[in-house]
Amino acid sequence: MGAGVIALTACAPPGATGPSASSPASPGSLTSPASRDTPVPPRPGNPKERRHAPAAGGPAPVFSRATARPGSAVPRTVALTFDADMTADQGPRAARGERFDNPGLIDALRTLKVPSTVFMTGRWAEEYPAQARSIGTDPLFETANHSYSHHAFTPGCYGLPVVDRTRMLADVERARQVFERVGVRNAVPYFRFPGGCHDDDALRAVAPAGVTAVQWDVVSGDAFATDAGAVAEQVLAGVEPGSLVVMHCTRSAAPVTEQAVRRIVPELRRRGYRFVKVSELMRG
Ligand SMILES: [Zn+2]
């Protein structure tokens, strides 16, 4: 299996500092100004969820990290996020025994009591419905949408096949429907574009789903990494108060993430950080 094929599975290749075909939001900003003060009723199961919904016809807002409010510093919080990647065409590979899940990582997060946000593809939830339900009913976690197919929402995104613009919204909705079907109860209205790749067209296409696009400011480098220490060092060097870290929950493409997390968590706590879900990071 060549690296080019494997590269289709993960959000960011080794050494990537960000998506190749997007313009990430300036840190902490919600880039759709019209959206900021438009409350939308929460969905069942998330009564306290604060929403930033797009204006009609406008782009989905984008969140990348927490920033300071006037007169106060950013709290010493950090959000670890884990992309549960599986693409729509990887079923045969899973059938041959390739593991796109990472139950050891989830166990570690539970043991270490690290609130986390899991960005799950619909295809992953179909392949691992019991794990999706377990994550999706655990108050330690929140489950966010990472598309159904894990195909690209812009051209030139790590070699991923591209979703037609007319199919983008349906791809997001299909993942949400799978989550409901398998019993995910802690779904939050956040969407991470596969590879993080997005443009204005893509933000407008997914906006009717009522989602906020969630990027990151710290790339863990766990995709295809073989050295857990190097991943941990990269995260520890990059985290600042309010940071949002992207990692992966798929052994196939990120085999050392659990080991890295076991190093990262105690060290960040020693430095005074508190781990929060994206929803809390967004609340500031
Ligand atoms: Zn991904």
TrEMBL record:
Under PROSITE patterns, the record lists: NODB
Span of the secretion signal? none
* Listed Pfam families: Polysacc_deac_1 (PF01522)
Query: What range(s) does the NodB homology domain occupy?
Result: 76-276
Which residue intervals make up region (Disordered)? 1-71
A molecular function (GO) held by this record is: hydrolase activity, acting on carbon-nitrogen (but not peptide) bonds
Q: Name one GO biological process term.
A: carbohydrate metabolic process
- Highest taxon of source: Bacteria
Q: Enumerate composition-biased segments (Low complexity).
A: 7-35
Please give the PANTHER family that the UniProt record associates with this protein. Answer: GLYCOSYL TRANSFERASE-RELATED (PTHR10587), SECRETED PROTEIN (PTHR10587:SF134)
According to UniProt, the name of this protein is Polysaccharide deacetylase family protein
Organism name: Streptomyces genisteinicus
Query: What lineage is on file?
Result: Bacteria, Bacillati, Actinomycetota, Actinomycetes, Kitasatosporales
